[in-house]
Amino acid sequence: MRYFAGVDAGSRAVKIVLLDADGVVVERGAADQGAAQVPMIDALYARMLTEHNISPQSLGGVIATGYARNLVTMADTVRTEITCHARGVRHVVTEARSIIEVGGQDSKFLRLSPRGGVTDFSMNDRCAAGSGRFLETVAQRLQCSIDELGALSAASMSPAEITSTCVVFAETEIIGLLAAGCLPADIAAGVQGAVARRVAGLTMGRVDEPVVFTGGVALVPGMASLLAREIGCPVLVAPDPQFTGALGAALLARSGANSEL
Question: What pTM value is reported for the model?
Answer without folding.
Answer: 0.91
